[in-house]
């Protein structure tokens, strides 16, 4: 192989060869690459400040925060949604996250009476009611039961609740961001219920938190004994205060409201308590004005996170990665279809990993974009065969006065300049 051949094959080791290879690769993909080809890139040819001295020592940040350049990837709230920030909600920046795990530091928060601060030492969990042995557990007690690790999404039933009547909020963070997905470590609720001995008359449990709101909810005993988790770690570390430190309940696939934080009491009961949170709230108003209760499961849903209003296309024509998230409270995601034309034609997206039950699934569709306008949609299918509905299909049953459980297909209108807008294609 002579010099020339080595250079063109990309094997040349000299600076000239490296520059040429870099420029060629860049030019293939982006406009910026083409500009680089015109002259030397000082980021490559000049010694940069970060290479002329030392970086931070190992103890500069004993517990690290994201680098300053990522400081816009944060939870955000919508001021007009609630009267104050104590009983309020904010939204996960799902437009800017990748993979499926939500870092606790930017996972949305929903509090009915604010996030409380409790020491582990002050934690008590009581199980009583229709049990053979009423019990109280300390945090240390919980640590001595066999542990499990499970990844689950938590979606607030009100997620997308502002979008019922039409396109409202301009960003996937706000339209679909009442969701997070974490790997929980804890003890199964079944283990603790068996320790207490559930009597045959016990058909429900009532769970409540230690905060002033208590956020009490009734859960059928079948679900309690099936897959609920008493969690004390998330993503490997202690739960953050805002997510229920030191202990929260996980109710996989079911609406976020049931995932009681700062869990303090589990009462085994004959029937449901019919608390505020399951009667005046978290019920679904139907087309005819009546309300449906006990709609616990979060049905299959998906959304494109990029491009989206907060993630415009900035790189011009050529390869474009379309990506998003899909999930189902009834099981695993088996398929996600993506439409570029508002639902007329569909292409099957690539799942980054096989769908896991009741956890987020990441999908991709890699296209060659030539600046054409698009009406981007994603449509999820789960392993029960259920297909995510259009807004019209959902409204035919639910009317427009619903708040909760809006799992309709979302549309982003991507313009030829790469900007995207929340629009409705019913
Ligand atoms: N004790 C208690 N648990 C609670 C709440 C609360 O206000 N108090 N809010 C519920 C609601 S409505 C939701 S959507 C989830 C939100 O969990 P997160 O704040 O970890 O995102 O917690 C639920 N558990
Ligand atoms: Mo919620």
UniProtKB/TrEMBL annotation:
- Keyword Oxidoreductase listed? The answer is yes
Q: Name one GO molecular function term.
A: sulfite dehydrogenase activity
User: Which terms are listed as keywords in the entry?
Assistant: Metal-binding, Molybdenum, Oxidoreductase
EC number assigned by the record:
1.8.2.1
Span of domain Moybdenum cofactor oxidoreductase dimerisation: 292-411
Listed Pfam families: Mo-co_dimer, Oxidored_molyb
Name the SUPFAM superfamilies for this protein.
Answer: E set domains (SSF81296), Oxidoreductase molybdopterin-binding domain (SSF56524)
**Oxidoreductase molybdopterin-binding domain segment(s):** 117-274
Identify which cofactors the protein needs according to its UniProt entry. Mo-molybdopterin
Carries keyword Chaperone? no
Q: Which PANTHER family does the annotation name?
A: SULFITE OXIDASE, MITOCHONDRIAL, SULFITE REDUCTASE
In its UniProt entry, what is this protein called?
Answer: Sulfite dehydrogenase
């Amino acid at each position: 192989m002579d010099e020339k051949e080595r250079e063109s094959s990309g094997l040349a080791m000299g600076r000239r060869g490296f520059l040429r290879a870099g420029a060629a690769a860049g030019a293939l993909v982006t406009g910026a690459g083409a500009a680089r080809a015109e002259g030397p890139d000082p980021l490559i040819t000049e010694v940069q400040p970060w290479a002329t001295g030392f970086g931070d020592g190992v103890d500069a940040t004993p517990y690290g925060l994201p680098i300053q350049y990522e400081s816009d990837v944060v939870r955000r709230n919508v001021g007009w949604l609630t009267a104050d920030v104590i009983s309020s909600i904010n939204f996960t920046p799902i437009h800017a996250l990748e993979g499926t795990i939500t870092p606790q530091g930017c996972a949305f928060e929903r509090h009915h009476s604010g996030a409380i601060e409790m020491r582990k030492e002050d934690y008590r969990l009581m199980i009583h009611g229709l049990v053979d042995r009423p019990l109280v557990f300390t945090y240390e007690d919980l640590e001595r039961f066999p542990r499990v690790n499970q990844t689950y999404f938590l979606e607030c039933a009100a997620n997308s609740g502002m979008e019922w009547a039409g396109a409202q909020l301009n960003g996937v963070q706000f339209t679909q961001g009442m969701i997070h997905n974490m790997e929980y470590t804890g003890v199964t609720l079944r283990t603790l219920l068996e320790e207490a001995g559930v009597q045959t008359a016990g058909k429900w449990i009532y769970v409540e938190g230690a905060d002033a709101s208590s956020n009490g909810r009734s859960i059928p005993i079948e679900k309690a004994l099936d897959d609920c988790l008493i969690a004390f770690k998330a993503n490997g570390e202690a739960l953050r205060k805002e997510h229920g430190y030191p202990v929260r309940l996980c109710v996989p696939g079911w609406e976020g409201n049931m995932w009681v934080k700062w869990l303090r009491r589990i009462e085994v009961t004959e029937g449901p308590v019919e608390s505020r949170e399951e009667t005046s709230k978290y019920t679904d108003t139907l087309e005819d004005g009546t309300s449906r209760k006990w709609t616990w499961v979060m049905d299959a849903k998906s959304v494109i996170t990029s491009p989206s209003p907060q993630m415009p296309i900035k790189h011009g024509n050529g390869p474009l990665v379309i990506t998003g998230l899909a999930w189902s409270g009834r099981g695993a995601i088996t398929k996600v279809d993506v439409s570029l034309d508002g639902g007329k034609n569909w292409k099957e997206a690539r799942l980054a990993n096989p769908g896991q039950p009741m956890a987020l699934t990441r999908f991709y569709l890699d296209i060659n974009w030539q600046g054409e306008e698009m009406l981007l949609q994603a449509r999820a299918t789960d392993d029960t065969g259920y297909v995510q509905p259009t807004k019209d299909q959902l409204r035919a049953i639910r009317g427009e006065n619903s708040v909760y459980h809006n799992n309709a297909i979302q549309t982003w209108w991507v313009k030829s300049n790469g900007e995207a807008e929340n629009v409705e294609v019913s």
